[in-house]
């Protein structure tokens, strides 16, 4: 019988009143969850989501109730540095890929489900990933443009299939609300909101070059690809200002 090691408890640290969990190995912790069939909701927190949560209390509640909140954005990492907590940025797309590789290497972990993206994109992403990871069992691929009539059928498929890793790419905050509402259907699964990751895996879009990512400038490349995001990018200077004010007036929450 396989012996499971008790999971290390993630250390929560407050970022503008929201938790970020500090761990040495996020992927390893989630693989342990999968091995022990322990369900988990992962939130990939960045500055934009943090500022949105200040105006959207239901979103803030979901973030606080998540089992694992990872430092996805450069702003979160810099905020932690203000408090002397050094950690590496953990982009959601990279964490999801690490988990997909592990599920491909260890079929006993279970199957995977993809939900989100435009019609055809999710299936294309699945095919390209399976070409790279031959053992990966993707049981469900469903685009994010479901009609009201189609939704019950999809939810029933999730319930019957019971995938152990469910990646939801509906954008923030829609994906977070969707996971919170439907997580009970697959209580032993790892649920992660992955934003536009399906587009990248499918080859529809590309990620920023490594040197931009390494210098916390991936947001510049995203703005170049999607100029319509400029209003949302205003959250970045707002987050920086709020972080400094919070540091001076409230200190460590």
Give the structure's gist in a few sentences.
With 253 residues, the chain is α/β, with parallel strands linked by helices. The protein contains 13 helices and 8 strands.
Give structural notes:
The chain is of the alpha/beta class and 253 residues long. It is 48% helix and 15% strand. A 6-stranded parallel β-sheet has the order 4-3-8-7-5-6, sandwiched between helices. A two-stranded antiparallel sheet has the order 1-2. The radius of gyration is 18 Å and the shape is globular. The mean pLDDT is 88.
H-E string: EEHEHHEHHEHEHEHEHHHHH
Number of helices: 13
How much of the sequence is in beta strands? 15-25%
The separation of the N and C termini measures: 43 Å
| Spatial arrangement of strands, main beta sheet | 4-3-8-7-5-6
What coarse outline follows from CA principal-axis ratios? Answer: globular
Low-pLDDT parts are: none
- Share of residues in helices: 40-55%
